[in-house]
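dumping this here before i forget
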Amino acid sequence: MSETAVIVGAGPAGLTAALELQRRSDVHCVVLEADCQVGGISKTIEYHGNRMDLGGHRFFSKSDWVMRWWQSVLPIASESRDESFDIAYQGQRREVTASGAKPADDANVMLVRSRLSRIFYRRKFFDYPLKLSYATLRNLGPTYAAAIGASYVRAQLAPRKPEATLEDFLVNRFGDTLYRTFFKDYTEKVWGVACSEISAEWGAQRIKGLSIGKAVAHALAKPFKRGSDTAQKGTETSLIERFLYPRLGPGQMWEEVARRVHDVGGTVRLRHEVVAIHRTGTRIDSVEVRDAVTDSVYTIPCDYLVSSMPMKRLAELLQPDDPTVLDIASALPYRDFMTAGLLVKRMRGAHAGLGANGMPPDNWIYVQEPDVQLGRIQVFNNWSPALVADPANIWLGLEYFCSEGGHLWSLGDDAFLDVASRELAKIGLIELDDVLDGTVVRVPKAYPAYFGSYSGIGHVRDYLDRFCNLFPVGRNGMHRYNNQDHSMLAAKAAVDCILHRSADKSALWLVNAEDDYHEVASERPEEHLEEAA
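structure:
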């Protein structure tokens, strides 16, 4: 008889694991998703014909396997077969080849899209990632730029010791003035705690080896580098880069993957939640599942359990004998997320590059203004024209980082939309009269956090690794700030373990842990002065 794998969660990790197992083995996969649609945080929300991408998902990976996998599901649209595109993102370039699929209204395709993100600070736009450029210095002004330089020199002469917190880490590398200008407020918006309460390990993971000194040296050396240099071509990117993007948003990818899982014999059950796990020692025997539609509970025997549920919930269901495991897991911190989808007639401001209706050319804008709670703005029109029902309007996603049960989270939808609209007007990007419509999406546990009990997460991981047929994957399953390609690679590693009958799960935990995978591995250090956020 064939074996059964229960896969908890129909996000990128869970669906990748399911399709890989169904394709590569006779293991029967049952995917259980508590939500009413697939995709996890990579789903697409539809509202009155307009589509929302939660958090923004650029389809670009340093993994060739991931890039090929995506294109095997959704081909790249073009006017002719075998047309090649040069795409670039985060200091990496690669060539992709289109299949000849046309970008029609009903096409299951990916588009090649231009990438532009900027910082909005002091009611001005700055390059993102932050660059040591003439435009940056002009926006800051000579006096403020000089203060940044002096602060950096002081930090180098008298660094903070010991370097225990994220604040220590950032001040030592960038100086107190630049830290307070471009790091402190935004980082604290994201995580909801002071930088002095976040471990320096977070900074070490996100911005290894960077400093103002390296950025200055690179900026000074740049004019003397020959444009024909091969290595330079491999790392040099302009402000405008390109990436792949599903025509109808990221959810289109995962809806198609779910369909293919079904076509090759797997099962995807929506609105099904795991409420209990039965085990014998360190082997999972079965799971109890609640069907939210019928409110019935039933048991599924399983040979393997691939879990992307939050690590704290998984530990709770396993009922560990060691109380320390449960104590650490139950206290693991998360940051929650809300998006206000606003449909507006036009945007305001005398900023360069705006369209006829005032629409900026950005995919998203990082809002560094300390007088508003707003964290980022997505301009969905620039992700894909198909995300907007009427191209004459501008469809925006106003992103807020918050805590489940907190003030923002608890506001009614109308009240929250009013807050978001007024904040966007306050920073001068719209007039309130230009708002046509809006909706609110809440995403709990969107960002696993690296403070509090996270310092003991190794104890929880060691406990989970004892289970020979349990494989934690995904952002929440591993309590790791994974991108969707990281989650897919972890799922692939889990499938490899299952098929090779391997009890060694180290390959799962190495994903998004190697120095050369992180975005900061780029040779352009000035592009990553924002990575701590």
